[in-house]
Amino acid sequence: MNHRLTFIALLLTLAITTTVRAGGDEPDPSHLTLDPIIVVAQKWEQDPRDVPRSFTVISSGTIQDAGIMSIKEASALVPNLNIVEPSARRLSFPFYRGIGSGQGDPAVATFIDGVPQHTANTASIPLIDAERIEFLRGPQGTLYGRNTLGGAIHIITRPPPTDNQWDVRVQTTQGFNGLQDYQLSIAGPMIPDVLFFRRSHQYNTRDGYTRNDATGNDIDDRESFFSHSRMLWLPSDNVEVSLGVMYERARDGVFPLGDLNALRRRPHHVNHDFEGQTDRDILAPTLTVKLFGDSVDVTSITALSFWDTFDYSDYDFSPADIIRRRVSEEQDYFSQELRLSSADGADVVVGEGATLKWLAGLLLFYADTDRIQINELRPDGVAMGAFPLAGNDDSRGSFQDLGVGVFGQATLSLDDKLDITVGLRFDHEDKDADIDNRFQSAFGDTPTGSSDLDESFTQVVPSFAAAYHWSDEHTTYVSATKGFKAGGFNQKTPVGVDLVYDQETSWTYELGHKAGLFDGTVVISAAVFHIEWNDMQLSLFDPVAGGYIANAGESTSMGAEIEATARVADGVDLFAGFGYTDAEFDKFIDSYAGDVSNNKLTFAPEHTWNVGAQYKRPMFDGIDLLARLEFTGVGRFFYDPGNTQVQRNYILTNLRLGLRARNWHIEGWVRNALDEDYIPVAFQIGPDSFVGESGAPRTFGFTVGVVF
Hints:
Blueprint: H1 2-22, H2 29-32, E1 55-59, H3 60-65, H4 71-75, E2 81-84, E3 93-96, E4 99-100, E5 108-112, E6 115-117, E7 130-137, H5 141-144, E8 151-157, E9 167-175, E10 179-191, E11 195-206, E12 211-212, E13 217-218, E14 222-236, E15 239-252, E16 258-259, H6 260-265, E17 269-270, E18 277-292, E19 296-314, E20 323-342, E21 348-351, E22 354-377, H7 379-383, E23 391-414, E24 418-441, E25 444-469, E26 474-485, E27 488-489, E28 500-501, E29 504-517, E30 522-534, E31 537-542, E32 546-551, E33 554-569, E34 572-587, E35 589-590, E36 594-595, E37 607-620, E38 623-634, E39 637-638, E40 646-647, E41 650-661, E42 664-671, E43 681-686, E44 689-693, E45 699-707
Parallel strand pairs: 5-8, 12-17
Antiparallel strand pairs: 1-7, 2-3, 3-4, 5-6, 7-8, 9-10, 9-45, 10-11, 11-14, 12-13, 14-15, 15-18, 16-44, 18-19, 19-20, 20-22, 21-22, 22-23, 23-24, 24-25, 25-26, 26-29, 27-28, 29-30, 30-33, 31-32, 33-34, 34-37, 35-36, 37-38, 38-41, 39-40, 41-42, 42-45, 43-44
């Protein structure tokens, strides 16, 4: 039924578009042309139709119109993307087309202004300063490097204005469950024509959505302060220097995990004897220098990141005092990217009707991570016979990762019709780990194992693409791209599972078409894909060891995605997207279910879709009416390789209605308007035991903003 509704919605959108274009007098197309978008998916500025890859762009206009406050909320408008994200924002796990990861390094990396966030701990940040988000599907290793085997998410922040004008914005959102959000952005010249700045700040808090029945308290509240500052220095016409600093202090409630079947009976209710906390602190400065020459441009991106997290939680997810868990993690990260490219608008002429656009670069990075994991074995567990005595199962690890990547890509254009793109990257990583495990009890401190590990991982990652421009409005492309993610170390594993896991690789083959129709009033993109994923790093769970990683043999994913946006009348936009994924294990032996060959991959929805409409037209002199309605759907997916527990199809409905003037706006909104119950996060903790977390319920509120 949901499949039929999805296709009907897509066909209805296109049918309405065609009807409007075909009937009556044709209005002035200049009033209806969709707003142009420029992307940097290939690390130089391009029209999206010139990029031979499947991706979705969420513009700043959409972010504002839809009231999007996080990457997770934006992802609902992206076909074939499922972000598994607990309410405590310390962790975020994106899956493209079924390709992703849980514990360890991500398989879909997030970037902020070209700077990699190569950990699940810093991937989810507020979007108070976002100019746009580029969701890039498929391997991006040639240009973006490590941890992009499934794809990448690139956040491009809003730069300071360079017109010597001041831009001051104040906004507050008040809503359901004590939601309070306050934002302030100030931008302007420090030295006219030379030095500019932008500073944006956000304070956000809300009560929890989940009730702990054991105490009567909410368990998943949130509170955070976030800021993003940026200075832009333009000493001359061909030099640009940008210094940015990102800072966050987040204090969230604990992960509201409860028995999966109990959550299905009573959503948003758990039973914990202990209420813990989840903290995150981030400080990340970045220096970007760009030199623009007549034939060659130079870009240098130097980034540091210092972050630490701490969480303390009930680890038996029950009212009995059996086991609690403390996890403390901190990382110091440095990266340096140096890039040379053909100058913008100065492609190299290599023959009659043939031009070459090229890029080459070097990336160095170093990460130093310390992690402490302590399972507190409590008195009730001893009384129940779960373990012989009370104490702390203490695991401490120190991890170092040093890597280098050398990469290049070139696009040969023939007669402005055929583009042939070839890319190549060489990656090498050296990883070291010093791990110490011991048991602390009233009888003393007993070592239970230590390891001093050292592994190296090397890979060559090629990519190929060809695009044919039938006209300015139609482009067909085909691509083949290799993906790679280095192996690494588990801090603790069940008996018989190696601490070291191997690297994983993939090949993705894609065929797509991009079109602009009716004088730019309709934009459509579509793609089909086939992925072969080898030695996949699967995130598993053990009640004692916690999360760990094991290589899971082979898998295959295939499917398609289509997106359409249409401006059917002045101020009336329709949009729709649909993604289908068939992702299966080809070969894997699961510790609980045995041979799971031909089973579906975890957290890989059969389909994802969105459809909606937006109306923005003058209501009074200088005041516009904004109305937006969107439906987003997620098909069924499994939580475990054995495919024993499934999340069924669900649909979320979002509404927004408000007034906008040049210097102010006021809007009311509802998310999940029909209060759909669903469980987007769950994992297996035993042969027949699962814990999960309820998705956000119906929320509502209003937003007021002023621009000076």
